[in-house]
Here is the input.
Amino acid sequence: MKYEPTAFGNLAMTVKLEDLPRIPRRKQLLGKDRERFRESVSAVYLSDPDVSIRDISEVTGRSFGFIYTMLNEAGVELRPRGGSYSRDEALEI
Here is the structure.
């Protein structure tokens, strides 16, 4: 199953990195809380190509692995390592 940005309505356009909640250490996210968090993280990751998993991890207080898992659960296609760049930029080097 692939994630489609329209699946969450306008969420992808309204959630910013700084709007993500900071989750207290050792708090488990279950049920609706986990679902909402997963949707928010996915929306931020998909809406801004400059935001990395590491950035989301730092803002939310969750580990890189947890954010990676949330994105995979949401069916988000992850960007390649090294940040975002276009194929044309890569050919200019």
The CA atoms of residues 83 and 89 lie 12 Å apart. Helices lie at 11-14, 31-47, 53-60, 64-73, 87-92. The longest helix spans residues 31-47.
